[in-house]
Amino acid sequence: EAKGISDSFERVFLESPTKQQADSTIQQMMASDANGELDFSSLEILPKESAAAMVKTYLTFNGGSDLNLSHKEIDMFHALGNHASQKQVEEVLQKVLAGRVQEYKQGGLEAISPYLRGKGKNFFPGKELQEKSEKSPYVKKFKEFADYIMGWPSSAKLDGLQEGYQWINYNINNKPSIALQHKVIWADKKRNVKFIFNRTFYVSQGHNSVQQAGIAVPTGDKSALLMFVSRTSTDAVSGFGGAAKRAMGSRLMGGKIAENMAAIRDTLTK
Fold first, then answer.
1. pLDDT above 70 as % of the chain
2. d(CA 179, CA 194)
3. CB neighbour list of residue 4: distance below 8 Å, 6 or more residues apart
């Protein structure tokens, strides 16, 4: 066991018990159970003041950048009819999210359904995430961890590796943005470090995907240095003013990461 990095580090990273307290944009969240299963039954379309507009968006969406849905998923909402209730839309949304988790678990990045954009064009988040994995300095530098991440879900599990899933319902510009995350942490006893990897393999709107990777290195008996890199993708800030919006988004994301890391630190030092 790496000195300075306690067993509680894994629990905090995988379950994020204080994340909702540290991030005011989180409306709901849930970590997977001991079997890696996620329960979506409590998920709602929030905040309440914009729920009616979001229900209409889901029922009338035909592709574009307002939502991240495949052609099949769009048909599932259309099948409800134009007068479906919020509860009916939420039930279909829960099925869509469960389906996204299942396809990812069974086939990895290649199995992720594309998002239908305007003019019938598809965007493939799985392909983009694969490219991010190949370019990640933390994934590429350490072969054992890289082989596991790049070969997942068929790669052999490493000794000391733990993983789990999480869904988070964010409030982004007064609209729900629901993220599905796959979290991996590996204690490398030979190097006396812990590798962490967090992949947002689906998000309902706002951006395309997120991938984060890092290492925790002990610096003392009760302390550790955490090095962390995050890459976010969006095609919703192109065109005039896009560069400024991307820069602003990067600063906001950096602030959120700093807040989350501080929350982890505070939890571990209590």
1. 83
2. 25
3. 218, 219, 220, 221, 222, 223, 224
- To which H or E segment does residue 193 belong? strand 193-203
CA-nearest of 196, 11, 184 to 108 is 184
Q: Which two tokens stand for residue 15?
A: 């379950």
H, E, C per residue of 52-116? HHHHHHHHHCCCCCCCCCCHHHHHHHHCCCCCCCHHHHHHHHHHHHHHHHHHHHHHHHHHCCCEE
pLDDT in the model for residue 6: 60
Statement: the pTM of the whole predicted model exceeds 0.70? yes
- Residue type (1 letter), 127: K
- In tens, the pLDDT along 10-62 reads 888 898 888 888 889 999 999 999 999 999 999 999 999 999 999 999 999 99
Q: Mutual orientation of helices 86-107 and 51-60 as an angle, nearest 10°?
A: 60
pLDDT of residue 133: 86
